[in-house]
Amino acid sequence: MQNIEDINRVIKENLAVMLYFSAPTCNVCHALKPKLLEAIENNFQEFEVVSIDTSIEQEIAANFSVFAIPTVLVFLDGREFLRKSRHMSVDEVIREIKRPYEVMTS
């Protein structure tokens, strides 16, 4: 079980954080997640990934204004940088994060 305070602390304490919102009934979520996590791992060293099950954690989803799944929120240096919902490709997410991430870590 997670709470909003824990997630906000992770966002504050880490350079790069991805929140992955999904639910057990979402087939797209399950197909996308392993590919996305692998791409994050291969491209970015300092990335914390937090998975949030919206079927259990409705309050957290609402707090981050997430109303569709899958939704990916990327925080860089404590600020929301990227928000993708429903239709997204792994390449697209990686491409949008890559340059600002490299600037921050160089």
Automatic annotation (TrEMBL):
<dbReference type="GO" id="GO:0015035">
    <property type="term" value="F:protein-disulfide reductase activity"/>
</dbReference>
<dbReference type="InterPro" id="IPR013766">
    <property type="entry name" value="Thioredoxin_domain"/>
</dbReference>
<dbReference type="InterPro" id="IPR036249">
    <property type="entry name" value="Thioredoxin-like_sf"/>
</dbReference>
<dbReference type="GO" id="GO:0005737">
    <property type="term" value="C:cytoplasm"/>
</dbReference>
<dbReference type="Pfam" id="PF00085">
    <property type="entry name" value="Thioredoxin"/>
</dbReference>
<protein>
    <submittedName>
        <fullName>Thioredoxin-like protein</fullName>
    </submittedName>
</protein>
<feature type="domain" description="Thioredoxin">
    <location>
        <begin position="9"/>
        <end position="93"/>
    </location>
</feature>
